[in-house]
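Is phosphoenolpyruvate placement plausible here? Inputs below.
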Amino acid sequence: MSKSKKLIVGNWKMNPKTLAKAQTTFLLISKKVTKIASPKVQVVICPPSIFIPKIISKKVLLGAQNVFQEAEGAYTGEISASMLDDAGVSFVIVGHSERRARGETNEIVAQKVKAALSFGITPILCIGEATRDDSGEYHAFLKKQLTESLSLIPKTWIPKVVIAYEPVWAIGKNAIREATPEESEEMAIFIKKILSDLSGDAHKKTRILYGGSATVNNAEAFLSKGGVDGLLVGRDSLNPENFTEIIAIAKRV
Ligand code: PEP
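Reply from A.M.:
I modeled the complex. Tokens:
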């Protein structure tokens, strides 16, 4: 996928409560996306997995919020990359901070990145520090998270991974504060440097997203000044009006 295309991803998390509401929300978004369709923007929605087979769309791609690292077997409650592929999923969020907080390590995340790519699914690898400190320790934290999460794939596969920089302190309604586009740009440059050390020039094709309280109100600033190729949107992706406005902004930025 070309870097000139903006990528807007909606993470619905464990929402909405019913399939009917999920279908209505999705339909409202995909109708508008069809209207404003642009080769300049790619749109992905990641609903809860149970809703995925019941959502049909052409213009909006489907993503999952998690994948299990093994292909099949006795893993109660898990869903494999081949199952997601079979259900029409083309992207999967891997290593979201809400999953890392529940015990997902860089090692597991690396296995999931590899499993997704092995089935042709694009992993959206989430990285981000929980806190910031004056001495810049978070740079080392981020470098370790990124390097270890990419450690099981060949370097030539790195451009197939989408990196989502999501500072944990800026995510959700309990965010300490919003990140600034300048902070996003600084971290995008830092991520590119790490990717360049890992994969040389190949890193130039790797897409980087910003996520963490990205909304209709700040999308333009992040997309024009944040040094990123798109956004990972949580809460505002459940609001069809706001989410489609973010897509319209991405089209004109
Ligand atoms: C997220 O958790 O991936 C996210 C970006 O959430 P929000 O936009 O609600 O902060």
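Short version: The beta strands are 6-11, 41-46, 60-64, 91-94, 122-127, 162-165, 208-211, 230-233.
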